[in-house]
Specification:
Strand order of the largest sheet: 5-6-7-3-8-9
Largest sheet: 6 strands, mixed
Order of helices and strands: EEEHEHEHHHEHEEEHH
CATH topology of one domain: Rossmann fold
Distance between the termini: 33 Å
Strand content: 15-25%
Bound molecules: adenosine-5'-triphosphate, magnesium ion
CATH architecture of one domain: 3-Layer(aba) Sandwich
CATH class of one domain: Alpha Beta
Number of helices: 8
């Protein structure tokens, strides 16, 4: 399998105080990484570094052997918070088409529209195509934004708490949809259930990053009588 993401000795701060310290990570084609950890642990910051949205201060990140900024075109991203101007009269289908934007591109092709439509379909929200984005529920909007990330036809998908505003039923559906996507995926989640949903790699970030790939096997073995508290303690113990 091809190595797609390589992080070496990455350390980052926003000024005073280290946010991420000496992080190492290798992800291979088709890996599905669950990124877990407490509020303020540095998950979103780490994703932004991977996307080239923050400058690297110390250490190195290579994506397809390139610097993050140069690889950004290959990554579909769903941010944790989106500042949509809710008065903006933009339709759902136009939001998804933004996923087809390229540098220097002036208009969308027929193929772009087809891909955008297919992405909406895939996320189960094709019926909302003509609605205003501002008029959707939180969960509907989240699916539309996922569709936008997919419309880019990325090799890697990075999602920052994609199920945050989605009801239980919807969360299951989103997990199933993600599981079926063949791309390399990194998903931040506070919901430990994600570990049951096709993930093969697990990392906990609290300033430092620790891999817990063995958890996936453990959970599969213990399914039915697995204890969330026990799991969290295992992870914390490792970080101490
Ligand atoms: N732009 C910024 N300027 C200064 N400090 C920041 C900035 N963004 C984040 N931080 C700080 O960096 C730390 C890590 O934040 P980050 O958003 O990466 O955490 P997180 O793991 O994504 O948390 P959450 O689970 O709450 O989303 C926090 O202490 C936060 O206050
Ligand atoms: Mg975050």
């Amino acid at each position: 399998m091809q190595k797609q993401i390589e992080v070496r000795n990455l350390t980052f701060s926003y000024g005073k105080g280290t946010i991420l310290e000496d992080i190492n990570l290798d992800l291979y084609e088709g890996d599905y990484l669950a990124l877990i950890g407490p509020n303020g642990g540095g998950k979103t910051t780490f994703l932004k570094l991977l996307l080239g949205l923050r400058e690297i201060q110390k250490g190195e990140i290579k994506i397809f052997g390139k610097d993050p900024k140069e690889a950004r075109g290959e990554i579909g991203y769903l941010p944790q918070y989106i500042n949509f101007n809710m008065d903006m009269p933009i339709n759902v289908d136009e939001v998804v088409l933004q996923g087809r934007l390229r540098k220097g591109k002036l208009f969308y092709t027929k193929a772009d529209r087809k891909i955008a439509k297919a992405s909406l379909d895939r996320m189960g929200v094709a019926h909302l195509a003509d609605r205003k984005i501002s008029q959707l529920s939180g969960g509907q909007r989240q699916r539309v934004l996922l569709a936008r990330a997919l419309a880019k036809e990325p090799k890697i998908i990075i999602l920052d708490e994609p199920t945050a505003s989605i009801d239980l039923e919807g969360q299951k559906e989103i997990y199933a949809l993600l599981k079926a996507l063949p791309q390399t995926k990194i998903v931040v989640s506070h919901d430990i259930n994600i570990l049951f949903e096709g993930v093969n790699r697990v990392a906990h970030i609290q300033k430092r990053l620790h891999m817990h790939d063995g958890l996936v096997q453990k959970i599969k073995r213990d399914e039915g009588h697995f204890c969330e508290m026990e799991l969290l303690e295992m992870i914390r113990g490792d970080d101490a």
